[in-house]
Write a structure and sequence with these properties.
The chain is mainly α and about 80 residues long. It contains four helices and no strands.
Length: about 80
């Protein structure tokens, strides 16, 4: 649960920091950030774990989807 919850804010904060955010760009940048973090972990004596990538990315996808959906509803 922690890995899922850890990246929920990314799906909200990243689009808010961009001028013209899109769902695809937000999810792609989030996935790249997660991948970089996981690749660097063995350097700092931590284990690389594919489950972390999947759960972190799922958190980004869920929060970005909710944020973009609410943004469309509010614009109407």
């Amino acid at each position: 649960i922690g890995n899922f919850l850890m990246f929920l804010p990314f799906g909200i904060l990243y689009p808010l920091s961009q001028k013209d955010p899109t769902w695809k760009k937000s999810v792609l940048c989030g996935f790249i950030a997660v991948a970089v973090i996981e690749v660097l972990q063995p350097i700092f004596d931590r284990a690389f774990d594919m489950n972390d990538i999947i759960l972190n990315s799922l958190g980004i996808v869920v929060s970005t989807s909710i944020f973009m959906g609410l943004k469309k509803v509010i614009k109407r």
